[in-house]
Design a protein that fits this description.
Length: 223
């Protein structure tokens, strides 16, 4: 059984007959992050892999890049509905893997993950503007403090629905401009996106987070 994320058919599960065999070439080809041109057959929901061609793949050399790629894959597998095409998200997925393949410093990691998480959540209908308080209808101001609600987006700090509070307005404005250079921006984006991802997971665990915890426990950083 193999899980694929495809351009035109979204997330799919295929039966790859013989792939588990020691001498089967499929064993080496059906690997994480490997781009493939595939063909399948079958009338039921469970299709059978018929043919595949391997395409050039990004190489995730850095340990944190590899774990990040596994995290992204796990989001797709655990949350994304099956058999629905998400072409824009597919493009964001390819961009994220390419960015991770060129990772050289740890500070480059979080912007890649946060941008993909936003694209992922937007594809599922949870898009929001960092610089707009939805409950008041007013734009975020630099000196204000705000909250975040997974359903509404950015809200007033005093809102009863806020799951995250005391978010500085100037940081939210920086995030609205796509600026992740500051430590405050990365920290706020991580807090907000963690709440939204957990909301979408509905209690499902992410094993990739445990990998991060074990790998960077000394720094206390995980996705």
């Amino acid at each position: 059984m193999v899980e694929l994320f495809t351009l035109n058919h979204g997330r799919m599960t295929l039966v790859a007959r013989g792939a588990a065999g020691i001498r089967s070439p499929l064993k080496a080809q059906l690997q994480p992050f490997q781009p493939l041109l595939v063909d399948w057959a079958g009338r039921s929901d469970m299709k059978t892999l018929v043919q595949l061609e391997v395409r050039s793949a990004p190489v995730l050399k850095h340990t944190l890049a590899l774990y990040s790629g596994l995290y992204i894959n796990e989001l797709l597998q655990r949350i994304l509905p099956a058999a629905d095409p998400y072409p824009t998200l597919f493009a964001s997925y390819i961009e994220a893997l390419q960015a991770l393949s060129g990772l050289t410093e740890r500070d480059q990691l979080e912007p890649v993950l946060r941008r993909f998480e936003q694209a992922f959540c937007s594809a599922l209908g949870y898009q929001f503007a960092w610089d707009q308080a939805t409950d008041s209808g007013l734009p975020v101001v630099p000196g204000g403090l705000y909250g975040y609600d997974p359903v509404q987006g950015i809200v007033s700090d005093s809102s009863d629905s806020a799951r995250v509070t005391r978010l500085p307005g100037h940081v939210l404005q920086a995030l609205a401009a796509g600026d992740y250079t500051g430590a405050d921006s990365r920290r706020v984006a991580k807090r907000v996106m963690r709440v939204l991802i957990d909301y979408l997971l509905q209690g499902k665990p992410l094993h990739s987070r445990n990998l991060f915890s074990q790998s960077v426990s000394s720094s206390g950083r995980n996705p």
